[in-house]
Each structure stands twice: as C-alpha cells, then as structure tokens.
Batch of 3 targets.
Target 1
Amino acid sequence: MTTHTLTDSVDFADIKSAAARIAPHAQVTPVMRSRSINALVGAELLFKCENLQRVGAFKFRGACNAVWSLSDAQSKKGVVTHSSGNHGAALALAARTRGIPAHVIVPEGAVRSKVEAIETYGATLHRCAASTTAREEACERVRQQTGATLVHPYADPRVIAGQGTAAMELFAQTDPLDVLVAPVGGGGLISGCAIATAALAPGCKVIAAEPSGAADTFESMQKGERVGAFVPDTICDGLRTLVGEVNFRILRQHGVEVLTVDDDETIAAMRLIWLRMKIIVEPSSAIVLAAVIRHRQRFAGMRIGLILSGGNVDLDALPWLAQRPSIARPA
C-alpha cells in the first residue's frame, strides 16, 4: 500500500486513487440549487453539500483516505492529529471504520459541539493551548509516546488528495462550471480542488474565500511568499489556521485567487442559506456564498460551483443571536 511523506507532491492520479479508496465509506453528497439566491446574485449557483458528508464536513474525505492508505503494520499503532473540530471528528470516525486508535490534540477555545463529536466517535482527547506551536508540540509528544501515524489536518498529501475528491465528484454531477469557490484555512480543501479542477476543467477559475480577520493566504499570495504566524480574529473557527507550506505552493502553481470576506457578510450568508435552502451550514462554509454576493457584479451570468464545507454548528451559540446583520434579499 502506497504511503506518502509530507514533502511529496499530489497529482490527479492521487485524487482518483483516493476516490476509489474512500468510496465504501464516504457519502456522495448532493448538489443543491436555490432560485431565490440565484436571483439575488444574478448567476447560477450549484452548492456541493459537504455539510451532509459523514461527520458533517468534507474533512471525512481526507481523513478516510489517510487512514485507509496506511499499511497494516502502521494502522495497528493508530493515528494522531491536532484539530479544533471537524478534522478531529473525521479522523476519529475514519479510524473507527478501520478499528484502530485515534488521538486528537484539541486546543483551548474549540467549539464545544465539535469537541463532543470527536469524543463520540471514539478518539482519545489531549488538551493544549490554542497556539499552533502548542498544538504541534503536543501532537509530536503523543506521536512519540504511541507510535501513531501523524495525519496532518491539511498539509498531508493523503488528506489533500482525499479533499480533492469533493471537486472531482462535483464536476461529475454538473455541467461545465465557470468558477469553483471553496473556503481556505490551512488549505487542504482548496489545494485538492485546484488539482482536480486543473485536470477535469482547466477553463474553470478556482477561487478561495477567506475571512478578512484571518487573511494570511490572501497576504501570502499577494507577496508571493508565505507569511508567518498571525492572530486570527474571525467567527469562522475552521478557517483560523495559517495556510500550509505545501498547500500554498499548490495554490500558487494553479493560480488560485483569494477573496476576503468580513464576518458580518459571512453571518448574513449563513442565515440566508438556512432561510432559503433549509440546510444547516457553519460560518466557515457560508463564506463561499458571502464572497460571491460581495462580488456579484463580477460573477453575473456565470455558472458557479460552491463547496459548502461543513454544517457543524453550536445551536446554543448561533451568530445571529448575538448580532442581527442586515440580509440582502431578492427583489
């Protein structure tokens, strides 16, 4: 069974292999449309509903591919990662499908409902401070103590390949697209999508949506080099991470454009999706629609694929209960 190191590149063959590997375990998620949102934007939007994936997020694709890529000898010692929520839950469930241990380092301040999901899926939790350094140090400690294989949340090539299956699946479900929009935090999803798009739809523009309060990818792309550590300030808890080195290289290679979005716009888009489409998405997911609404003149008349990355929300702390943003409504 093929294994990767973190320095390996990822190509479309890896994504095709990942699709076959995860097929017995992952959901084929639906593509949904909303006439009223199309009317608001003046474009045809096709929403790839990864909020309906197992564990409620696209993260299961990459975690599942990583777990089932392990040799039998590797798998016996389990897997370890650090995660604020969705990746941890995904790895815990993926490990359970193979009957192996999972260890998840959870930083302080993680969304309670996401931490509960990690526990529910059977992982052993290890707490740490909220900084990236603390997460990585704790992860390395557990790895050395247990012999578990590290499955990085976004920089592992097996994870990137697995996430790319979301775009591969979307292209198989739709007619040709002009634009594909996905969120960017660490960059696992958007880099996998960029690779799949280059292979399957080279005329389709790939755009990353990023919170303006955590716009390290935008700054990195502008400067042509990856910026250093930063302090994120955004409601999008899944997008607070510094973009990975390998992910940044892939984004540059494929000419991915980054659009930044303010939190109030993301909250308004989240509420609009709940209201019009009757599905639950989290802020890190709704940001793709917020980006399109913010730049609606640019996207007028286009066919746009939007990857709704997840739907894991703390129902006791909905963002519009704290503030009530004005919502753009169709005429």
Note: The chain has a mean pLDDT of 92.
Target 2
Amino acid sequence: MNIEELSGIIEAILFVSGDPVSIGEIALNLELAELDVQHAVEQLQNKYEEQLSGVRLHRFGKHIQLKTRESYAPYVEKMLQPIQRQSLSNAALETLAVVAYRQPVTRLDVEMVRGVKCDYSLQSLVNKNLIEVCGRKDTLGRPFLYRTTDEFLSHFGISSIDELPEPDEKANEEPKEESCYDSEFDEINTTENETEHEL
C-alpha cells in the first residue's frame, strides 16, 4: 500500500466517522506502523492546505478529525444555519482555565484559586469530556487529579496545551469571593433539576 492510497483510506475513515479518530487506532486496525500512518496524515493535511479545500485535517493530541475551514464558516452558517454549540458558563470557564494552566490539579487547588466551591463545575466539565481524572495526589486523602482532554483541544481549536495564550496578569489575581460565589450559586440554581439527572 503506497502513501497516496493510505491517505485516501484515512480520508474515507475520517469522512464516515465525523468524530476524532486516534492515529494509533488507525494503525492498529489497518495493521500498519504508526509512523506510516503519520506520514499519510501529513500528506493529506498538506493536500488540503495547498488546494485551499473547504475542509481541513485538524490534529490535536494523538487524534485527527476533518473540519470545515474557518474562513468558509460564515458561508456555511448562512446556508445551513447550524445549531451553535452551547457555550460554557462563566463559572465553568474559570474552572477550566485553572485546570488548563495548572494541570494536573486537585479540586482543592482549583478552589484555592477561584475562592469558591467547584464541585459542580468540575463534574460538569468531566461530563462534557473537557477534563478527566488522571490519578490521585500523593497526599492526605489522596484526592483526584484533573487534567484537560483531547476534546478540550478540539473544542478550542488548538493542537496542544503549548498553544494556550499567555495568561493575563489580572487572571492571576485572587477573585472576589462574593462575585464568584454568586456566579456559581446562580449556575447551580438555574440547572439544579437538570444536574440531578446528568450527574
């Protein structure tokens, strides 16, 4: 199997799947070396870029996925008017930012930065597959450690954590407990019934 044929096979797999696919999983199922798959992926990615194709191959972590080219998004939306992904609440975004920049972190680590209880936000992010448990901290009580997932990279359109922007200086300041508490409290109250079914 030459690299052109393998690129076409990978393209077909990604097209049918629609979801992110692991490079290692492709290599395993096709009984090929992972390095060969990576070369074919790079060729496919270069082809899309050279042709300014309407789709592009997005790599994040160890996964790949076909996505529409960002510059064409306004035309796609105008024609199809797709349903936009539900945005994250401020409380969830604050929690996610702490995990992303300080990972791996415990719940207590996050709460020390935010100044509020973060049980709901952490569980919500786990449910959305944006963060995951990656072990336990070797300390009293052995609390869970959290880190971001490949889905987090896909959600924000980056390939690795290294592409995260430099944190704003103000983001490192202690948040006011009252305002943070209100945000968390409002979120829990407005979604209380839904949360009981989701968690």
Note: The chain has two domains: 3-80, 90-198.
Target 3
Amino acid sequence: MTSPLVRLTAALALGVVLLALPAKRPPVPPAPPGAAPFEWNQDSLWRALEGRFVAVRTAGCVDAPVEMSLGFTTVSTLLDSLAASDVAPSDPRLDSLEAGFFALGPVVAACPAGLREYVTLSGRLREVAKDQSQHWDANDLPSRQRLYRLLYGTRAAVEEAMLQHPDSALPLLVGRDEPSATPSAEVLGVRIHSGDMLVSRGGYPTSALIARGNDYPGNFSHVGLVYVDSATGEVSVIEAHIEVGVAITTAEGYLADKKLRLMVMRPRADLPALVADPMLPHRAAAAILARARSEHIPYDFAMDYSDPGALFCSEVASTAYHDEGLTLWMGLSTISRLGIRTWLSEVGVKHFETQEPSDLEYDPQLVVVAEWRDPADLRQDHLDNAVLDAMLEGADQGVELDYPWYKLPPARLAKGYSWVQVAFGGHGPIPEGMSASSALSHDVFVTRQRALAAKVQAAVDSTTASQGYPPFYWTLVDLATRATQADSL
C-alpha cells in the first residue's frame, strides 16, 4: 500500500506539473489599416546640429548674442505672420519655422544666456501651431505629421539645450490661462480648474513603453482628470492605475508619485459645447468622480477605448467628457510595428488603434496651461526613452519576453491569491485583468530595461567625461543600441 507521504508527494508533483504547463501565447492582432511609423529620416541634420554646437562651444560665446538675436527675430516674425491668418499644413512658412527653430538650438545649447528666451519662444510656437491645427483635419496624414513635427520637434530641441545647462533651465513654462467657469485651486503656483487634465510621464519602465510604443513616439504616459470641490476648493485627481484600476487621490498624493514631466491641459473656452454650457468640464469630472466612489472600475489592459466597463488612464478623461457630449482625442494613436504589437499582446493589449496620453497634446480642442520640467528628471526621461527605443528595435528583430518555466507555478498561485483579494475588495500581487504569464512577461521587460539603463548610464558618464558635454539623444540611442546588441551576444 502506498504511504500517505508518497501520495502527498505525488499530488504535489502533479500540481507543480499542471501549474508549470506553458501558457499559450496570445494571438497578435493585425496592425490598423494604413498605419505606419513616423520617420524623421534626418540623421544627417542631427549630426550637423551637434557639429554646430561643438563649433560654437569651442569658439566661445562672444559672437553668439548677435546670432541668437537674429534667430529669435526671424522665428518671432514668422510666428507673427502665421498667427495673422489661417494657413494650410503645407504652407512653406511652417518649413521655415521648423528650420529656424532647430538652427537656434545649437547656439542656445552652447551659450545658456539665450535659454530662457528659447524656452519661452517654444511656448509661443506651440500655441500658434495648436491654434492653426483647429482648421486642419486631425486624421489627415500630412496634417498629423506637420503638427507632430512642430510640437514634438520643438520640445526635443528645447530639452537638448536645457540638458546642456541644467542650472539655467526654466522649470515652469506658463502657457495660456484659458478662461474657465469651473471651480479652481492653486497647485504648484498655477491655477487649475475642475475638468483640467494632468498629462504626465511616470518614472517606471512601463511608462516609457506607453509613451514611446506607438507610431508617433511621445513624451507622456499618464492622464489624470482634475475635480475641484466648489465649496471647499479641495482638489481630487481621478486616474487609472494598472495595479488597482480607477482611483481617486489628492493633489499632494498625485504629485508624490514620481513624475518625469507634467503638463496641464484645458478645453478651449470657445468650443461650441462649452459656449453652450461653460460648466461642462466640471460636470464631466464630477460624474466620473461619483462613479469611481460608488463602484470598482477595473483597469482596461485591452486598451479598448470604446468599452467604458473597464478604463485605462486616457479613458478616464475621454469617457467623462464623451458622456457630457464632448469627444476628445480627435487623433488616435496607431501601433503598427510587429515587435511592439507582439510585446504588448503578451501583457494583455488587444487594440492597436487607441487613445494614448501623448495624443492629447495634439488635440486642437485643448490648450496647454502650464508645463513643468526638471533637468534631473529630463535626463532620466531621455535615458529611458533611448533604452526603450533600442529595445523595441530588438523586438522588431524577434526578441521575445521569455521567462523561466519554473516561475510560472508560483505566479499562478499568486494570481489565485490576487483573485481572492479582488473578490473581497482588495488587490494582490498580480493586477486584476492581467494573467500570470502576462505578469511574468511584464517583469522580464522591467528587469531588462533597468539593467540596460544602468549600462547605458555608465556609458553616458564615460562619454560625457571624454567629450566634455552630455551626449545628445541620438548618441544616447547609439549607446543603448550597442548595449542591447552586446546583451544578445
């Protein structure tokens, strides 16, 4: 007769075998029709700009004030001309504007006396571009590419200059204080209103994937919707987190969570829906706040913005406004590269035309009220971006998020424990809506990104010491690519 110990051992062994059975890889949905990654195709320009920076830096800044003054005047004159009437995305003055702003970058990066004016000028350029985009078709490819080049390119140029002289950086760029009738409160020296959107970039590796992992790589990974109590002035931020779903926090709690950058956006006061009802943004925020207080709203890993049953961060704002009659996200993100789609499928994403946080910056219905950028955080942001860009190149070449088979049984047990916790109103180690295998794939991604970031940081330190200045972004990508390739050998 078989002893109880032997039977128990056999049962445990069978349990481990069953728990270790490989998870079937999820199917990878096709790319959205007609979608394709945006390509700058201007590597020679970036290298030329760096060459100009080195030349000005070597020669000193004696002649730079004259060159900067002429450049600032040229760009400002172009902006005056563009602001005077509606222009098409194909207007050649927009090419001149982009070229003129880029040309100023190396001189400002070498001579920080012009940095504050350069940052301020970028804010005006953004405002003029967004005003013009009201008359463009957000889903027309030339229009989208033009707006992306102007807004993303301008920010990239400014930040390269800021990172060369962090002590001279302008942490707060005040945008347009768009009129609003909704309750307000002051946060970090800026008056924010109920219905405003806080668009940020988190410090977690997954934040880089959210910001960069689409056809138009962006700068933001998270959206929170502001509610201001009209009686007390108390600020609440409604946001969706992978770990817990939709949650409510205070302004202090929101800011305590690591942010590598932060921007406040507000609906234009002249939108027909707001002209008819100026309190619409407040009602939208109040409605989603009430829903979050009355029910558990799970996180939407599928990124299906058309299903309000579960919400990812962008959906919190879009659903709230949609229910009040205002459709945000006039342009949707697409994800067409096979490597990114494969990785995202492994962590539960099923929809590859969706609402990304970075899209909000390009929505002509919204204005930028303020933007905060800290130089130390920007360095981390740029490093994480470069590492992620290099990792995604590897994904396109077939690199998978493989995990050791022996981690699957404990992960499945942890998932069972998490399911029980959620059933009783809590949350466990594996988020609701994420499978055990997805959680392991996610952990592999995070571990790889952090290990590569550490290697690239060491290479950055060495490069900075040898050339005498911090490497520009294109060099960061080169360093990250080398580190990624070395890891694969």
Note: The chain has three domains: 43-170, 184-372, 388-488.
